[in-house]
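User:
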Amino acid sequence: MAKVHTRMKRKLCISSNTNYKINFNKSVHKTRPKTFKSEEAAQAWAKAQGIEKYELVNLRLSDSAKKIKVVY
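Assistant: Predicted structure:
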């Protein structure tokens, strides 16, 4: 990990005499669903995963733009 210099330490409220690396990179992200641009790619992924009963859901509002999610 690269060294954090004085300006960034002041901005992030990190003191110079403590080990800041313990809590510096703890970012928690919610896991997102697997999405695809085409229905064929979604069906191929579901077949490769061994999923037989599934439904393809378009997450976009318009039919011209597609973002397909596999719901099983």
